[in-house]
């Protein structure tokens, strides 16, 4: 991408290794309220959803309302687990630094709430790579992924045309959002379904070390 101006990184599963932790906590809480799920099932059914969508999907499966404190408990217990266990995804810091060293801007665009992304970036030390205003949340736009709203909002705020942007994503819904926004999408498949990412329109990377070269940036 000779005209590359901006690389947009998803947060969970791309920069911070949070997906297994989040879905393990969710599986535990789902089981407690009468919907038995293990980690694999929860990742397959819930990964990439907004909080309200998690509640709605659970209520549909249960056939009744979730407890009033369900989402509050999920966020609180997840935060506790993050404090104990959260780590950066291998190669994340190096990939971001190499993109920046090539003179290309970077930002974060996550399906999660802004405060969650800022917390996880701080816990892993990756917050120092991004200006505080360069972290974006799907809660700031009308529609989350797989719609393009979040990526278009991030690009407009960062002053880059969509065609001059690349996205690094690890979920099919995120890939779909990037493609719908008219951006090139790299699908990070180390802990995701490579076939599903490719089918959604991503060029596959199995290691974040591959990102700069695949974008035509110096090694």
Beta content comes to 5-15%
Domain module count? 2
Distance from N terminus to C terminus (CA atoms, Å) equals 15 Å
What is the fold named in CATH at topology level of the largest domain? Rossmann fold
CATH class of the largest domain: Alpha Beta
Number of strands: 6
Secondary-structure element string? EHHHHHEHEHEHEHEH
**Which percent range fits the helix content?**
40-55%
Number of helices: 10
Silhouette:
globular
Rounded mean pLDDT is 96
Assembly classification: single chain
Looking across the biggest beta sheet, what order are the strands in? Answer: 3-2-1-4-5-6
CATH-assigned homologous superfamily of the largest domain? HAD superfamily/HAD-like
Stretches with pLDDT under 50, minimum 5 residues:
none
Written account of the structure:
The longest helix is centred in the middle third of the chain and has 16 residues, at 70-85. The chain has ten helices and six strands. It has two domains: 6-17 and 87-214, HAD superfamily/HAD-like (Rossmann fold, 3-Layer(aba) Sandwich); 19-85, Orthogonal Bundle (DNA polymerase, domain 1). Helix 1 runs antiparallel to helix 4. Helix 6 links the parallel strand 2 and strand 3. It starts with 5 loop residues before the first strand and ends in a 5-residue tail after the last helix. The protein is globular and about 55 Å long. The chain has a six-stranded parallel sheet with strand order 3-2-1-4-5-6, with helices on both faces. It is an alpha/beta fold and 219 residues long. The protein has helices at 19-32, 39-46, 51-62, 70-85, 92-101, 114-123, 149-158, 172-180, 194-200, 211-214, and strands at 6-9, 105-110, 135-137, 165-169, 184-188, 203-205.
